[in-house]
Design brief:
Elements (H helix, E strand, L loop, with lengths): L5 E9 L8 E9 L2 E7 L10 E4 L4 E4 L1 E6 L11 H20 L2 E6 L4 H12 L7 E4 L3 E3 L13 H7 L4 E3 L3 H14 L4 E4 L16 H14 L3 E4 L3 H10 L3 E3 L8 H9 L3 E3 L2 H5 L4 H11 L6 H12 L19 H20 L3 E2 L16 H10 L4 H15 L17 E4 L13 E6 L2 E3 L5
Parallel strand pairs: 1-4, 1-5, 6-7, 7-8, 9-10, 11-12, 12-13, 13-14, 14-15
Antiparallel strand pairs: 1-2, 2-3, 5-16, 16-17, 17-18
């Protein structure tokens, strides 16, 4: 059998994700989907058989990983004929958008099952552009708990959307059956939630019982898949620790005590704080400007229209609108007030040595759009991370959380050739991560953003 094609990238600054520094004048040789050799530019003549690509001083990072995303949400909140006609195309654009902005692997933490499995198969077979995908498939939750805007679909709706986004259950037996069923379908993790209060003006919320959570965790252990728990309150933080889940998604927006954080650290858990999902509410006018200037590149006409409409309503006075008890309007002031507390909690978790990953909640909120991954890194730097630590969280730490650190997350010989090439120096200015010049996923060059 002939050797797989070898490509040589040279003339770069290299951030491997192993050290905290940039290495100058490095070269990388890839063979097929793997990194074959990493050495100095001075050795370039040792590889005469390789296709050469001169990166002209750009910075090479490990492929970015988004550990909290919702890929099959098509940015359509209201059912319209145009929305239905554009839904599948927009989902396909979502996958392409990920790699265009430098993200080569995603951990999808709730999706329409048939849709994401179809797209994963297409991407894996090279029929579509997209990241490497791990998925929880459906969200396992209580009768009317988070995600509140996701109803139980009737059979026709389920066929159109690709299955239930949220499985609303009430007994341990149901949880066990559904959890095993999701893993049988192809789930790589299981996702649940604990929230005592709505952030959509709907008051108190029900949760699954401890017996249900125990059944879910037991199913995860039996099938060797991790369990993730959504939370935005200290009560959920503590519930996740008590029930023994593997990751906590988002961050408590009320103050965590030192003993809470010690329990978290001792349990060996990780948190994916998605700080930008809270901080976005401090930047609503800027996000609206971004949509008007850039959004049409990433969104089809109906998702774009509905996204603009959804952001504009947050700026209207008075807010919330009169129908807020029946509709799904976020409590803007709740997020604004909670953001600095969440930041302080993350700062304390970091100081305690806790594991903190990077996720954007892209597609999961009405304010989180593609092209803003760098903002999560900026939030982390404001919570006490160095730029290098933020980049490691986005790559090496995320890979460990995904249980894929033997294959991705750092630039090392033998690992997948996942490379995100950016203009500038992200160790000096984290916003350089926004300037994506080239993306390589598994040895294959991907289309990049034209922004």
């Amino acid at each position: 059998m002939a050797d797989k094609k070898r490509i040589l990238y040279h003339g770069m600054k290299l951030f491997t994700g192993v050290s905290d520094t940039l290495e100058d004048n490095k070269l990388i040789v890839t063979r097929g989907d793997r990194i074959d050799t990493i050495t100095d530019d001075g050795a370039i003549d040792r590889f005469p058989d390789c296709t050469r690509i001169d990166l002209k001083g750009k910075t090479v990072l490990p492929g970015l990983i988004d550990a909290h995303i919702h890929m099959t949400v098509p940015f359509i909140m209201k059912v319209t004929l145009k929305g239905l006609l554009q839904m599948n195309r927009q989902v396909g654009m979502n996958f392409a958008n990920c790699v265009r902005y430098g993200v080569t692997t995603v951990r999808d933490v709730a999706a329409f099952p048939k849709k994401i499995l179809k797209w994963r198969e297409r991407i894996d077979e090279g029929q579509a552009v997209g990241p490497r995908i791990l998925t929880a498939l459906s969200f396992i939750t209580s009768s009317t708990g988070v995600p509140e805007m996701a109803p139980t679909l009737n059979p026709i709706e389920s066929i159109i959307t690709g299955g239930q986004f949220a499985e609303r259950l009430s007994t341990p037996e149901e949880v066990t059956t559904v959890a095993h069923g999701l893993v049988n379908e192809g789930a790589d993790l299981l996702k649940t939630q604990y929230s005592e209060n709505s952030f959509l003006f709907h008051g108190k919320l029900p949760n699954l019982s401890d017996e249900c959570f125990a059944a879910l965790v037991e199913a995860g252990r039996e099938r060797h898949v991790p369990v993730a728990m959504h939370h935005t309150e200290r009560a959920g933080f503590l519930k996740g620790i008590e029930m023994g889940v593997d990751t906590l998604e988002h961050c408590a927006m009320d103050e965590l005590a030192d003993e809470d954080i010690e329990r978290f650290f001792s349990a060996g858990m990780a948190v994916i704080p998605t700080i930008k999902a809270f901080g976005d509410y401090l930047e609503i006018p800027e996000i609206l400007n971004f949509l008007h200037s850039e959004g049409a590149k990433d969104l089809l006409s109906e998702p774009f229209r509905q996204s603009v409409e959804g952001v504009e309503v947050l700026l209207k006075h008075p807010y919330p609108p009169p129908d807020h008890q029946k509709q799904f309007y976020p409590d803007v002031e709740f997020f604004k007030a909670g953001y600095p507390i969440a930041m302080k909690n993350i700062e304390k978790i970091k100081k305690a040595g806790g594991t903190i990953g990077v996720g954007t909640d892209c597609c999961g909120t009405g304010l989180s759009f593609f092209g803003s991954y760098w903002k999560e890194l900026r939030h982390l730097t404001r919570a006490g991370f160095t730029n290098a630590e933020a980049l490691k969280a986005a790559t090496a730490v995320n890979a460990k959380i995904l249980r894929m650190d033997d294959r991705i997350g750092t630039i090392e010989e033998g690992k997948y050739a996942d490379l995100t090439v950016v203009e500038g120096d992200p160790l000096k200015d984290i916003q350089a991560v926004q300037q994506v010049a080239m993306v390589v996923k598994g040895g294959t060059a991907m289309p990049v953003s034209s922004h």
